[in-house]
Amino acid sequence: MNSGTAAAAVSIGEVERAAAAVLPRPVWDFVSGGSGAELTLAANRTALDRVRLVPRALRDVSACSTASTLLGREVSMPVATAPIGYHQLVHPEGELAAARAAKDAGVPFTVGTLSSFPLEQVAEVGATTWFQLYWLRDRALSYELVRRAEDAGCSALVLTVDVPWMGRRLRDVRNGFSLPPEVRAANFTVDPASEAHRAVPGASALASHTSTAFAPSLSWADVQELRSRTKLPLIVKGILDPEDAVRAAECGADAVVVSNHGGRQLDGAIPAVDALEAVCAAIDGRVEVLVDSGFRSGVDVLKALALGASGVLVGRPLLWGLAAGGEAGAREVLGLLAAELRDALGLAGCANVSEAGRLRTGRGPLPVDRATRHDEGIPR
Q1: Cα 179–Cα 316–Cα 184 angle in degrees, nearest 5
Q2: pLDDT higher for 288 or 202?
């Protein structure tokens, strides 16, 4: 798939297959792999596949709309891009192309601490930009990144709290994965990711780098201190336990993201969609609840809304689009999500996003024949 054929895709599964065909195997494994035996990676999809929606009948959906708000800002659909590092691994224009696609789609773009372009340059694209923060051992550098995000006009701060160090991702270990020389952590003047470029057989250079750079001591006291130092809306990402969600709200968070890091941290962690309802019940509307990990379609987004989420963060599909077709491919992924969500809303009897939150749900068995699943033919 290239920029000319990206528009021919009719599903995100097709975009995924196109990305798998063009990316070098080690890069594909880095993007698509999970930790350990990848049990949680697989469970995220299994859990979403089991969620069943109960559509309503005889509802006027002639003016069906996907428009919503996230953190008080209007969005074209209740979707934002999830933070992912090093977009340049899959396309030379990396985060810049992805941010332009998000701007055109009318959804927030989340630029990461480990972005391959400086956060200021990404923010200049003009999308609603959220900045994702990893808590660093150099605390002063963490606060400097927050100040830069504020000065660049970012509209929210996303604190990732589930990475004291990188989970043991066996694909990367087997590949001895490291960053190529042209890809770096561009948010740092003195590049702390230099360790991420040193290939060592039987080890992940990126895991070595994060164990050196990230602070495993991050605590609720740090969240409170961060809250006191910035006026930006604060999103706490990486929550699965309802008690942690309540604690985040008590510390001043404006939203939480129910997430198991896309199956890339604790292998065996509960699927995010299975944790969602309990978190929403515990939060009881005090802050917004977002969710990520395994979401691949507009129907998946509708399921999250029905289970109580305010919106969904989408990660890997955007990178698949970027790999397969550059900016046009990323734009196509977001366009497919919007079209699928509108279709799902209307077929479920919902004229708008708020009505989706009143749908009933159930859990069903997985289909016996899964030959037509979206990941058919994808290398592992």
Answers
A1: 20
A2: 288
- 341/334 Cα distance (integer angstroms): 10
> Catalytic annotation on 261?
yes
Tokens of 142: 């963490």
Indicate whether 157 pLDDT > 90.
yes
Q: Which of 87, 209, 261, 374 is catalytic?
A: 261
> What CA–CA distance (Å, rounded) separates 303 from 53?
7
Report the 3 state secondary structure along the chain. Answer: CCCCCHHHCCCHHHHHHHHHHHCCHHHHHHHHCCCCCCHHHHHHHHHHHHEEEECCCCCCCCCCCCCEEECCEEECCCEEECCCCCHHHCCCCHHHHHHHHHHHHCCCEEECCCCCCCHHHHHCCCCCEEEEEECECCHHHHHHHHHHHHHCCCCEEEEECCCCCCCCCHHHHHHCCCCCCCCCCCCCCCCHHHHHHCCCCCCCHHHHHHHHHECCCCCHHHHHHHHHHCCCCEEEEEECCHHHHHHHHHCCCCEEEECCHHHCCCCCCCCHHHHHHHHHHHHCCCCEEEECCCCCCHHHHHHHHHCCCCEEEECHHHHHHHHHHHHHHHHHHHHHHHHHHHHHHHHCCCCCHHHHCCCEEEECCCCCCCCCCCCCCCCC
Average pLDDT, integer, range 20-27: 97
Q: Under the phi-then-psi rule, with left for phi > 0, alpha for psi from -120 to 50, and beta for the rest, what region is 263?
A: left
| Cβ-based neighbours of 305, under 8 Å, separated by 6 or more | 78, 311, 353, 356, 357, 359
Q: Categorize the per-residue pLDDT at 374 as very low, low, confident or very high, splitting at 50, 70 and 90.
A: very low
Q: What is the pLDDT of residue 209?
A: 87
- Residue carrying the six token digits 């016996």: 368
What's the pTM?
Answer: 0.94
- Span 158-168, average pLDDT: 97
Measured CA to CA, the distance from residue 20 to residue 16 in angstroms comes to 6
